[in-house]
Write a structure and sequence with these properties.
It contains 2 helices and 6 strands; from the N terminus they run ββββααββ.
Length: about 120
């Protein structure tokens, strides 16, 4: 089966034994390099951490293109007292992916915020 955007990471199991899987826009499961996408949940590849699953999602959810990955620091500024760390983390988790189109022929830019890396800067 072919991939249908968007790709996203889903937690499976309970909190004590969390594992993560990758799904696409029509509910197909990432089943690994050999089998690619499958409609069967039992074929889904399990990831031990959310970060591993996100990395896999980044590699395999770009429509079959070979990709390059860059790391960048992002500064997020909020009004003091308006956001708790927990609320901000929840918000970033829901809206962590930003896809952008570039100039003609330069499509396929994905900016992803990893909420687990959030830390307050003391000035």
């Amino acid at each position: 089966m072919d991939y249908m955007p968007p790709g996203y990471v889903v937690r499976v199991c309970d909190r004590r034994w969390s594992r993560w899987i990758i799904k696409d826009g029509v509910g197909q499961y990432w089943a690994g390099e050999q089998r690619r996408w499958s409609s069967k949940p039992s074929d889904a590849m399990l990831f031990y951490t959310e970060t591993d699953a996100l990395a896999g999602c980044n590699r395999h959810c770009m429509g079959g293109y070979e990709i390059d990955t860059y790391h960048v620091s992002v500064v997020l500024t909020v009004i003091a007292g308006q956001w708790s760390r927990k609320t901000l983390m929840r918000r970033l988790k829901r809206r962590r992916l930003f896809c952008a189109s570039g100039p003609n022929g330069k499509d396929g830019l994905l900016l992803e915020i990893l909420p687990g890396t959030l830390k307050k800067v003391e000035s």
